[in-house]
Structure formats: structure tokens, C-alpha cells
Design goal:
It is a single chain. The chain contains eleven helices and no strands. With 311 residues, the protein is mainly alpha-helical. The longest helix has 57 residues, at 246-302. It is found in: Cell membrane. Residues 167-292 form the Type II secretion system protein GspF domain. It is a multi-pass membrane protein.
Amino acid sequence: MDALIILSIIAFWFCCLIAMKHFWSFLREKRYAIDHVADVTHIDPFEKKVKKKNRRAELFSRITNYADDFADLGQRINFFSENHMVEEWLRKSGNPLKLTVSRFQGLKIFLFIIGFFSGLLSMVIGLPFSQYMIIFNPVIGYFIPILLIRREAKKRQALIRRDLPDFMDTVSTSLQAGVSLDHALREVIRYFDGPIREEFTRFNQEIDLGVPREKAYRELLKRNDNDEFQSLIKALIQGLDLGIPIAKTFKIQADDLRQIRQEQVKELAAKASPKVTLVTTFLIAPVSILMIAGLMIMNMLMGENSIFKLF
């Protein structure tokens, strides 16, 4: 009977592994089919992602309607989240959930109240550590929107930093072939995904609406605090004022950015060695010494030459 149970468990896990393998193959083939259909029919997958984000933002807006009732209170209780700070975070994160400053301020208070009632409910039910939950849950609810929006802003700037060298090289090549800047941007961004495409798509839309080019560049600077991106836009503004060839600007900026990235990688590698040494010194070495000392003590107490056998 025991052997049958063991065989059944082995067969179960074997079937689970086979199912996971086939599911992974299905996902891979599905992704390949979607990309192939997009290439053949000239459908932009990025537009589907935008529509999906908009649906998510609409659903989130319906859920957080109650946050508007606490907007005034949230703007008065603005610890670590003053209005100008929230506006900057939303702008730099791309505002994927279509939040306004007032709704964000109300969302903090709304989650604070939910955290309080959840802690109170845990105390009534008698959950472990419920006396701490009634204190920490409201605090966590208050800071969750702040931490999430700041993390989203940093993540978005990191994605721009990652894609920027390839984007500048591609635009530089198009410009050297005689294509105008506006046409080059419209064509190149079709082959990119993520924040850098969103930013230059919005830039092109502002140019189409008649916004002066320098003002559109300034808006790009306001929406992004990435040093490399700001360096590029400032160089474009300077080139616009002084008449410097734009293709040369993109090429120089791309080379400089790759050099900066190489230096950053070397710096991170240099910082990793002391961290490894620190872990080895304070964790691995003491544990190894304790294990050796423990074996020696056990040998002295329970081994063949135990001190108890001498008496």
C-alpha cells in the first residue's frame, strides 16, 4: 500500500511537470502567432497594450470613486505627499491609472480608513498580532499609494534609460539618410515599446497641434528627470537655437550615453566586491566557526575520547 501511494505521488508530480511544459509551449506558440498576425496585418501590438491600460484605468477609476469624498481631507493631511510632489510623481510615472492629484490625496485617506477597519476586524476575530494590525494597517494603507507611484516613476525612468541609446542610434541613421526629424521620429518609434514611445508620440502630437518645438521639448524635460534623456533634449534645444546638425547631435549623445553606461557597470562591479566580503565576514565565517566548534564540543562530550570516559 505504501508503495502504491508513493507511485501515485510520483505520477502526480510527473503529470504536473508535463502539463507545465505543454502550457509553456502553448504560451510561446500563442505569442509567436500574435506577432506573426501583427506583422502580416500591420496591426501595432502597442495599441492593444494602450487599450488594455485604458481599460484597467477605467476599472480602477470605478473602484476608487469613494476616494473623491476624502480629497479635501487628503490635501490637508499631506505628510510626505504635498500637492506639487504628487503632481510631479504622476507626471514622471506616466500616470497609468489616470489619477488626478485630488483623487490621489483622497485615495490615501480611503486606504487609511480601510486599514483601520481591517485591523479592528482582526482584533474582533482574534487573529494573531491583531493589536499591532490596528496600528500598522492604517499606516500601510496611507503609504501604499505613495510608494507605488514613486516606484512606478523610477521604473519608467529606468526603461527610458535602457532604450535611449538604441533609439538615438536609429534616429541618427535615419537623419543621416536625409529624413527630416519629425518623419524620423514617427517611423522609429513604431519599432520601440514602452515609455520612450509614449513620450515621443505625445511630442509628435503636440507638434501637430501647433505647439512650438522648443515648448514641446520643455514639456519633455518636465515629464522626465532622467539625466541622459534631459541631456539629449537640452542638446536638441541648443542645436535648434544654434543651428547644429541634429544627426550629429543624436550620434554624439548615443556614444556618450554608452560610455556612461559602461562606467556605471564598472562602478557597480567595483561596489559588489566589498558587499561579498561583508557577507562572507559576518555571515559565512561565523557560521563555519560555530559548526567546527560545535563538532569539536560534541566529539569531546560524546566521542570515543569523551571527557566523561576519563572519570
